Amino acid sequence: MRIDGIILRELHLPLVRPFETSFGVTRERRILLAEIKSEGLTGWGECTAGERPFFSGESTDSAWQVIVNELGPMLAAESPEHGGKCPRIFRQVRGNRMAKATLENAIWDLEAQREGVSLSRLLGGVRDTIPCGVSLGIQPSISELLDLIEKELAAGYQRIKLKCKPGWDIEVFERVRNRWPGITLSCDANSAYRLRDTDHLAAFDAFDLLMIEQPLWHDDFYYHSMLQKRLETPICLDESIHNRRDALAAIEMESCKVINVKLGRVGGFSEAIAVHNAAQERGIPVWCGGMLESGIGRSHNIALSSLENFTLPGDVSASARYWEEDIIEPEVTVSPAGEIAIPDTPGRGYEVRTDLVERLTVRKETIRAFALV
Ligand code: OSB
Ligand code: MG
User: Fold this and answer.
1) Total domain count for the chain?
2) Following DSSP, what letter does each residue of 287-311 receive, concatenated?
3) How many Å lie between the centroid of ligand 1 and the Cα of residue 290?
4) Residue 33's domain spans which residues?
5) Does residue 120 have its Cβ closer than 6 Å to ligand 1?
6) Cα 310–chain centre separation
7) Distance, CA 137 to ligand 2 centroid (Å)?
8) pLDDT tops 70 at residue 219
9) Would you state the pLDDT for residue 371?
């Protein structure tokens, strides 16, 4: 398969409402899109790096640099047929998984189009619909949070995940549980606690949470395994899991009982499938995380979520929760039952609104096949 060009763009997309986590507030996304042209087809990839290196060590700017200077030329020189070849092509570059995923996922998209199958089918997906949850940021007040939850439950979402941190946890869970004793509720600390907070975290057990996501350090397995012994609530790891080996180590050490799979965090579809399979073989359920993606990254998440072991509702929700206007059509919608239907048309199954993408582009660079490797 010849690669005729790789176009990298940066778009600015304001969120419909600010998203606050224990590590900061995001109001506007700086989104990187890769557009890979090949023999009349276009594959799209989205970089999930944040604006600043607060979730992982990558950022919009670091990913831009690594794609333009390293990964883009490597990919163009090799022109792989299959997305599954990308990890080998990129292996000299350490880390930078979100940058790698941007390109690898676009190759999978191209491959699905060329084969005339849906991306879900190409990945080995088995579902027609996926169960959806929402991730709700830290709010200015508990009453505002309660109003939001009410709205999301009415929209059909099957699971509510609350961002938490010291000072925005037990009282919040208490108020939410008092109002909705039966809903599926979980929380995500994004590394806001320490092992000395074990007694405090054990008090979360009273709220029947589906899981607590990444309570401790972003790069840890060992202390999470010590913590898990003291909690009833299952721990889910997000930040700590970068590949299949990490998943195996975490499962072996009993650092978690659930894994959040994010395409960017693990470097693309190949490694996401490997993490999924490793977890499945060991009886550990997974779900698909989100990184406030535009419709392009969202459509990749939807296809990934169709794999068999994605049994728990993911952070994959409707376009309208994030954007006034999404850059794909149709936009992603969620049914009253809280599900997204998996498209069965070739590729991702959502068209890119190229005029809108062009209008929102603030930076653009073309990487050509003849660039030096
Ligand atoms: O930890 O899951 C996370 C967003 C940005 C960075 C990290 C996380 C999140 C989310 C949002 O929880 C999920 C979404 O895209 O709705
Ligand atoms: Mg998380």
Assistant:
1) 2
2) EE---S--HHHHHHHHHHTTSTTB-
3) 5
4) 5-116+352-367
5) no
6) 13
7) 11
8) yes
9) 47
